[in-house]
Design a protein that fits this description.
5 strands; alpha+beta; about 90 residues; about 30% helix; Ubiquitin-like (UB roll)
């Protein structure tokens, strides 16, 4: 298990109701599951997260299965929803 910070941007921030929060998880999938399970999070948050891209300490996760992405101690997970424009 690693402890770190999840940061939300744009629509993910609005749906989460916060800019950032701590995580305690071994993998990205576990961190996402914990974030989805937090009280007050509804279907809108799940939809946004389901369409989001992720960076871990600035490195893109890309198409890797989230369960295979181990989180580093003190790491930062950025949740980036799709953005309009380019």
């Amino acid at each position: 298990m690693a402890r770190g910070t999840m940061r939300y941007w744009a629509a993910a921030k609005a749906a989460a109701g916060t800019h950032e929060e701590p995580f305690d998880a071994g993998t990205l999938a576990e961190a996402i599951e914990a974030a989805l399970a937090r009280d007050g999070r509804g279907a809108d948050f799940a939809r946004v997260v389901g369409r989001s891209s992720f960076l871990i300490d600035g490195d893109p996760v890309g198409g890797r299965p989230h369960g295979s992405v181990e989180l580093p101690e003190g790491g930062v997970v950025e949740v980036l929803p799709p953005f309009a424009g380019g």
